[in-house]
Amino acid sequence: xxxxxxxxxxxxxxxxxxxxxxxxxxxxxxxxxxxxxxxxxxxxxxxxxxxxxxxxxxxxxxxxxxxxxxxxxxxxxxxxxxxxxxxxxxxxxxxxxxxxxxxxxxxxxxxxxxxxxxxxxx
Amino acid sequence: xxxxxxxxxxxxxxxxxxxxxxxxxxxxxxxxxxxxxxxxxxxxxxxxxxxxxxxxxxxxxxxxxxxxxxxxxxxxxxxxxxxxxxxxxxxxxxxxxxxxxxxxxxx
Lengths: 122, 107
Prior knowledge:
The complex is a heterodimer of chains A (122) and B (107). Chain A is built from no helices and eleven strands. Chain A has 122 residues and is mainly beta. In chain B, strands 2, 4, 5, 6, 9, 10 and 11 form a seven-stranded mixed sheet that branches. A four-stranded antiparallel sheet of chain B has the order 1-3-8-7, with no helix packed on it. Chain B starts with a strand and ends with a strand.
C-alpha cells in the first residue's frame, strides 16, 4: 500500500526552528516528486514547493521561496519541510503529497497525500 | 501566478440533487485541471485529473468537463458522503495554484 506518513503535531514559539517529516512507503521514493501544501486554519490550500528525491531537484512557489526549505533523505525514504525562524503566521496544517504520473510530463496533480502535520506557533 | 476562481464559495443541497461547481482560470490552462475533495479534519483526495478523467476508485456520479479557462465539476446525485469542500487546481504553469474552495453542505 502506498503511504505517506507525516510526523506529529508541533507547538513552537516564535523564532524557533522546526523540521517536519513525511515518510514514504509502498513505492519507489526516488521516482516521484513530493510536494508540500499549506492550509491555514479555516482557509484553502496553498502549494509551497516540491522536490524530486532522485536528484534533490527542488522548486518553490515564489510565496514560500526563502521562507522554508524542502529536502529529502533517500536512505530513509523521507521528505522534510523546515523553518529556521518560525512566525505566528506559520500556524497551519502542512500536508505532503506525491505528484502523480497520470499524464505525461510534469503537469500532474497530487494523487497520494499524507495525513497532515499541524504546526502551532504561539 | 495563475488565479483560480471557484463559484459558488458554498452551496446547500439535499441528497439526490445534481450539483455543479465551476472553476475559472485567469489564463488558458489547456486541460491541466485537477479536482480534490476534502472532508473536515482529513487530507484532500484527488477526484479528477486532466479536467475530466476520474481517478481510480472515485464513484461515477462525479464528472468533470472544460478546457481553456472554464471548468466544471458535477455530482450527478449528491450522496451523504459527498458533503465536503471541493478545490480545483491548475497544474499547467508553476506554481500550481488552487481555487478558494466550494463547501457543499446538507440542505
